[in-house]
Every structure is written in structure tokens, then in C-alpha cells.
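pasting input
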Amino acid sequence: MKEERLSARDVSYTYEESADPALKKISLSIEAGEFVAVLGHNGSGKSTLAKLMNALYLPTEGQVLVCGMDTADDSRLWDIRRQAGMIFQNPDNQIVATVVEEDVAFGLENLGVPHDVMVPRIKEALKAVRMTDYAESAPHMLSGGQKQRVAIAGILAMQPSCLIADEATAMLDPSGRREVLDTVCRLNREKGITVVWITHFMEEAAQADRVIVISDGEEALTGTPREVFRQVDRMRELHLDVPHMAALAHELREEGMPLPEGILTVEEMAGEVMKLLCPSN
Amino acid sequence: MLNNITLGQYYPVKSPIHSLDPRTKILLTVALIVAVFLVHSLVGYALLLLFLYAVCRVANIPFKMLLRGLKPLRFILLLTFLLNLFFATEGKPLVQWSFITITDSGIRHAVHYSLRLLFLVMGTSLLTLTTSPIMLSDGLELLMSPLKKLHFPAHELAMMMSIALRFIPTLMDETDKIMKAQMARGADFETGNLIARAKAMVPLLVPLFVSAFRRAGDLAMAMEARCYHGGEGRTRLRVLRMGRNDLVAALCVAGLIALLVLEGLLLPGGLF
């Protein structure tokens, strides 16, 4: 069995100023090296879930474990935050320093890492997100996608085992979104970093190993992208879309075209349609 | 319209003065300020001027830049001069006309105080011209760190300063954006009297403040997520080291002060 990185056991969370819980009895387990997408519409509680995984919030009920450490355990707080690095939605509001490499150093400085260990780690982190050329630039001169990559480098330098991205692409243009998602996918593949990718973009969720759909603070659906996006009607009930090709396949099937289930990309769609049109090949 | 504002008056070139440790520069500037008060004669001021000019040459800064720093102060300088000139009571009256009396010591004071002010401003400009704001806040943090024992928040102040520097361009962009958005809805920032224009700023400032507070909340969360917990046990990427040049600079300033003291002893009451 693979090692468990993040887990939640019957976790509920209620904001101080509200009566209704934002999360109700959520249980989940994320293994080392997994790429998990968390989907949900606005106010579904997905962002709350992210903050629980980094001990920014502590569960009202239940227990959250990061690499086996209970987030309620105050003495391991910095260890937990180092292991579960987090990037946020607004690229401007998470960069602290006036120079890129100093921002990457911020987490290491906080952890008290000695100077001569810090320097190679920063270099490596900037290389991993392909921002080496910008080491001495001012952050406000960078594009949104580049800023998010700097934020990722800042997390990587701390050598975490998990990366939690809380709608990290929501404020970016399409090319910036591509650039950030590609970077995270590559890190997941090459460095085996566990990724929790919180998003409301279906196309992004389709790239994950597993999708968890959250609705009204509860886990509504879970499974591989194919399993989840096959349930077009259920997704619409939850006020969520499915990727365009999954929706198209669904419509065509209802019109009587015998397409198989689980189509997600344009290539797959084209292949299946070709099979129907020219069965001889 | 807002993107041509530079931060402070830092003049970014490479020079031995620019690469001095900011702590050295801050301390030497303080020494220079003290030195200005040691001067009692025009010879002393000439020495100071020569010193400042020499530093400018070494720092690769045109001397004009130093003089430009005086421009916003021209009224204060003039006022200092005139007040001292007209309202001196001691000394031998030279001119007497209705309520105005100009005495010899009045002229002396007027010249001295204006020159002192002039040199104070030039001396500190030299610091800000050759030291980037971020280095300045680093230097101040380290210089003030012994005060931490007295619960003086040296680290917090430096952190606030560096975050402010980081967010100034961001907030500038935002101001520009809000201004355009309000102008598109008919807001008028450019005409009317002072009061009308001040009133016109309200629809600009309110959204700007709201957004600044939201940013502050986000940033605090992001800093916490990256294990920020104050200055304790923190290491630094940027390490300040004093080198040989710092020693040379200190010796130069010490030499200047020695000369000025000597001048005070040799020319008591001075050449003016």
C-alpha cells in the first residue's frame, strides 16, 4: 500500500461568523504522488478544505493529518506547513519580497535554513519552474503566470511533499493557466510531489489522477476524471459543467449515436467518430 | 500617468560607494551631520563642499543630482536666511530701517544656519542617492537589532518597510485602473478648485483602501502558510558584510572630522 500524505477524517468546519458549517463530515485520503483535483462551484467549501490541509484553519470537528501529523498539534505547526506548501489565487498578494530570488528565499528564511544551504536550493527551485533568468527581476514586472511560478518555486525551495493549489489559475489568462498547470504536472511526474489542485475549470480537473467534487460542504462525487465526467446529469444537478467533449459525447449519445463513455479530449472524440464513420478501418 | 514615479531618489549605478555596507553609510552620514555642526568658518564649509564633491565623483553621481535635492527646500532655506537676518537682536547694528535691524551677528547667523541646513540635506541625499531603499531598511534593521532587548520592533519595522516597497508599484497600477474606471463613469479629477478636487478623490481612495486591506489579509495568510513567525530564529539570504572599502570610507570621514576640529581650533570665531 502506498504511503498516505494527506487525510481528513470526518472533518467539519464552521466559520465563526456563520451558523452553517462550510464543510460537513468530509473524509478523504490522498496518497504520495497522487494528483487530485478538487472541483466545486463558488462557496462549495473547496477553499476551506485547502486551508484545513495547511493548518491555516483547524477543523471544528474531526481530524486532518499531514504526513501523519495532526494539524491540531501546535508543536508541529511549522513542519506541517513546510510539508504541505500552498499557493493561492491572487498572484500579486502572495509575493513578499521586492526581488524574485528573495521571495523564493522567504520560506527558507522563516525556517532558519543556513545561508549556504539556501543558495543552491533557491537555484534549484527556480530551475524547476524555469524562472532562472528572472532571479533578479522585480516581481511586479512579471506576468501573472510567471508570478505564480515564482510562488511555486518559493514552496519548492522548502522541499515539501505536497503542493496545495487553491484556485491558482483562476486569475490568469489562458496561456498563463497552461504554463502554471504544466509546471505543476511536471513537478508531480518528475519529483513525485503530491498535488491537490483546487479549481473550477473542468479541463484542468480532467488532467488529474482523481477528481473529488464538493458541493455544499459535502463530498458529492469522487473517482477518475472519466468516471466523474461520465455522469453529466449528476454534474449538472450540482451546477457544474463537464469538459466540452464529455458534454458533446453525452448529447450525441442521447441523439442515438453509439459513442462509448468516458470521452474527455478532442483527440479521443475524433478517434471514436472516425471509428463510427469508417468501421472498416 | 503614474508609472514614471521613481522610488525615493536612488541613483542606480555601480560604484565603490554604492557597494558599501548600508550600515557604514548610515553611521557615516550621522557622523557627517555631527561634523556639519562643528564648522565655524567658511573654510570649514569649503572643506565640506570639497568632500561632498569628491564623494559624488567616486559614486559616479553627477553633482547636479545632489543640488537637485535642495530644490524642494529653497523656500525653507530662504526663510531661515531672512528670519535670522532680520530678527537678530545682538551685535552691532549695521542697517536700521523702521522695525528692521540688520546686525553683523545677524548676517553671520543667517549665513551659518542656511549653510548648515544646506549641508545637512546634501549629506543625507548622498545616502539615499547611493543606497537602495531595501538596503537602507536592511541596514537600519541590523543597526537597531541591539534595541530588540528593549522590545523595540526592529525586525517588524524593516519587514513593514520592505512589504510597503513591494506593494507600491502594485497599488500604483491599481490606482491607475480605478482612476480610469471612475473617469469612464464621468468622474472628473482635473478641474475645479482645491476642495472640488479633494472631493473627487473620495471615489478613488475608498476602493483603493478596500482593496489594500483585502491584499493585506491575503498576504498575511500567504506569509503564514510559508511559515512566517516573526523575526525569531530567522536566517537571511542577503547577508551584509563590511569589507576594506568600509574601513577606507570610515577613515576618510574621520579625517574630515579631524580637519574640521582643527579648523575650529585654529580659526576660533572664524573667517566670518
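fyi Chain A has a mean pLDDT of 91.
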